[in-house]
Design goal:
By secondary structure, this protein is mainly α. The protein is globular. It has a single domain, classed as Ferritin, core subunit, four-helix bundle (Ferritin, Up-down Bundle). The chain contains nine helices and no strands. α4 runs antiparallel to α8, α5 packs antiparallel against α9 and α6 runs antiparallel to α8.
């Protein structure tokens, strides 16, 4: 297994055990929303390519990232077809939107915050692949473990770009988004999604 200790140290909390239980009870929804996440990740990278045309290093990294995410999307929908999971429309989780709500609106702060949010999304995806893998069948386990290297690299790319364009320490913004991320991951959700919190129980 690819070591992800640096990602575990970066994230403010571990995925709750209850979320793992929820995922195993909703395998179809897990795959559908995973496909959606890969598609959205590619879209986010392409949006940055359109918005920041003067930043060569960002263009190169986001172009590669978008291609990889679309390849992952293709792999997930192939698994869905093989397993008889119909690709249906799902509402978005509050996770990514909740993080993006705190992105500053002026530049270059908007770019820096957007890159930090991208780092958190990639890091959490990687952590969840690793947490889920031991509980899955051999085919899906192998697939999720195969994603760790690329997701880890995407996390690092986002974080390095944020630091580069800030030109100064971004520790305060990382800490700021850490609090937001922890709240979104640990608080209960009404619907299961790949980046949701644990499902709300009847007695809550």
């Amino acid at each position: 297994m690819t070591a992800i200790s640096h990602i575990q140290q970066f994230l403010p909390c571990e995925t709750p055990d209850q979320w793992i239980e929820d995922a195993l009870k909703h395998p179809g929804i897990m795959l559908i929303d995973h496909a959606n996440c890969e598609k959205k990740a590619a879209s986010s990278a392409l949006n940055m390519i359109y918005r920041y045309v003067d930043k060569d290093d960002l263009l190169r990294k986001m172009s590669k990232l978008a291609r990889e995410e679309l390849r992952h999307f293709e792999q997930v929908i192939a698994l869905m077809k093989k397993r008889g999971v119909n690709y249906i429309q799902l509402s978005s989780s509050r996770y990514a939107g909740g993080l993006h709500k705190s992105v500053r609106s002026h530049e270059p702060e908007k770019l820096i915050d957007s890159l930090i949010v991208g780092a958190y999304i990639e890091a959490r995806s990687c952590e969840r692949f690793a947490r889920l893998a031991p509980h899955l069948d051999e085919e899906l386990k192998a697939f999720y473990l195969s994603l760790l290297k690329s997701e880890s690299r995407h996390f690092e790319d986002y974080l390095k770009l944020a630091a580069r364009y800030a030109g100064q320490s971004i520790d305060d913004r990382i800490a700021f988004f850490a609090e937001k991320e922890k709240q979104l991951i640990e608080s209960p959700d009404k619907e299961f999604r790949f980046h949701s919190g644990p499902l709300l129980r009847g007695d809550q």
